[in-house]
Amino acid sequence: MNALSRYFEECARVSKVVEETQGDAMEAAAKAIADATEKKKNIFAFGASHAGLVTLELFYRTGGLVTINPIRAPGMMLDMTPITSTSKLERLPGYGELILSGEKAGEGDVIIIHSVSGRNAVAIDMAIAAKERGMKVIVLTNMNTSTQVTSRHPTGKKLYEIGDIVLDNCGAKGDSSLVIEGVPEKTAPTSTVIGAMILNAVVARSVEMMVERGMIPPVFVSANVDGGDEHNAIILEQYKDNIFYM
After folding, report:
1. 124, 179, 185, 190: most buried, per Cβ within 10 A?
2. CB 62 within 8 A of CB 128
């Protein structure tokens, strides 16, 4: 079996482990999002560097919730040069709190924070600051990695120790999943694939919960299908007080 088949097989295996072990946590995360939406509270998502790809997946997205706001801070995304600066900035104590202070985030709001290692200061500081504001903190991390690395935060804590709800992507330590003979480094990371699967499933369940409560969920329709623009304009107007990316 070559690497193509092995990677598909590994992603399928990890997704099955997630389904079997993370159901309760995903249910709790979906409920937190549904509760916040029902109460017209705000929802945010944050990740640094590649972790930010999964949080970007959640916003302004066909089939996604209109109310999820990405936190896109200077130096945290992959669009900067030199890219190595993202690794330095995510270790900077106090930056996470500073970032959150620029958002309209407060009591009763929800924040999803994604970090595979959960060891760097920016995510930990943001989680601490969010809890101080009375927000519900949903953490997406890799417990195989996070439990085997040291914290880079002054408190010695890691992100999973702060979250109200912790979602484990069940990946390998260090994220990469395949050993290729003759190559000392492993390849084929799974965190983006599995992380997107987890959070899209959580969003889908939250939508289902809203319907069960008699709500009309604020879900985007593709702008590239007939009627999409009109539908989206209506829900963007309905939830304009909870949307900060327009």
Report:
1. 124
2. no
The tally of CA atoms less than 13 A away on the side-chain side of residue 186 is 14
Q: How far apart are the first and last CA of the chain?
A: 47
Q: Which domains, from first to last, does the chain contain?
A: 3-242 (3.40.50.10490)
Q: What is the radius of gyration, based on Cα positions, of the chain?
A: 18
Pairing relationship of beta strands 176-178 and 187-189 according to DSSP bridges: antiparallel
- Tens digit of pLDDT for each residue in 178-236? 999 999 999 999 999 999 999 999 999 999 999 999 999 999 999 999 999 999 999 99
The token duo for 207 is 């939508």
Q: CB-based burial of residue 166 (10 Å sphere; 0-12 exposed, 13-18 middle, 19+ buried)?
A: buried
Whole-number Å distance between alpha carbons of 70 and 243:
10
- Nearest one of 29, 47, 33, 51 to 175, comparing CA atoms: 51
